[in-house]
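Convert to structure. Protein one:
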Amino acid sequence: MSVTAFEKIEDSEQADGSRHIAFRFVFHTGEIIIKRFLAASTYDEMAGLSEMVPIVEQQMIDNECSNLIGIAETGGTDVFDASPVHPETITLANRKKNFAKKALRYIVNNKDIKLARTIFLKTWDYLANESGWTGAQIAGYLGISLITLQRINSRFQWIRDNLTGIDADDSYVGDVD
C-alpha cells in the first residue's frame, strides 16, 4: 500500500457542535497529504481515517499524473519516458501503462483539441464541402497552390473520417484498454 502511516492530527470542537478534524497521511516516498474537514459531533474518526486511505492514495496518483503531464507538455520528458512511483503495489510497466492511458485521456479531453475540432475542422468542412467554391477559388482565397490545397484537403478528410468514428463511439470515454 502506498500509505505507510496515517494519524489524526487535529480534532477540535466548534461552537456549532461540529468538529474540525485533520488527518495526516504519509506515503512510501515520504510525501505527505493532510486532509482537513468539518464533521458532525458523532463522527467516528477511526472509521473515517481508514475510509480515507484509498481516497488519498488515488489523489496522490492523480496529482503525480497531472505533474508528469505538465512536464511532458513543456517538453521536459516524453510521456513514455515518465516513471510514475504511485502506486508501488503494481509494477513500473503497469504504472507507465496507466499513466499513458491518463495522458491519452487528458489529450482527448483537452480544450485545444476540442477547439480545433469545433472551429477549425468545421470551418474547413464548410470551405471544402459546402461553400460551393471550386478548389482554385479556395486556393486563391487562402493564398496557397492548388497542390498544397489538395494535400491539406486529403489530410483533413482523413482526420474528419477518423473523428466521425470516434465521435460515434462514446465507449472511448473513461478507461482506455
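Protein two, convert as well:
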Amino acid sequence: MLNFWAPDGYFTEPLYCQNGSQIAISHGKAQGNPSGDEHVAYTFRAKGAGPDSCSYDAVLNNTGSPPIAILHLIVAR
C-alpha cells in the first residue's frame, strides 16, 4: 500500500512490468485537511502469476517536482 499526504492533488505514472504482468491499482477517496493537503491510500493486487518486476511512480500535481514515490513491485509465483 502507498499512503501519502500531498498538496494540490496528485497523479500517477503508468505501471510498467518487464514481463507484461497486470497489476490492479486502486486508490481510496482523497480526504483533505484544513491546510489543503489530501490524504490518499493506494492498493496493489497482482492479476496473474509471476515472476515479474514492475515499477510505478506517484507524482505531485502542479509542482513540476520529481516523483514523490517510486515503487518497485515484485510479482512472485
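The mean pLDDT is 76. The chain is about 0% helix and 55% strand.
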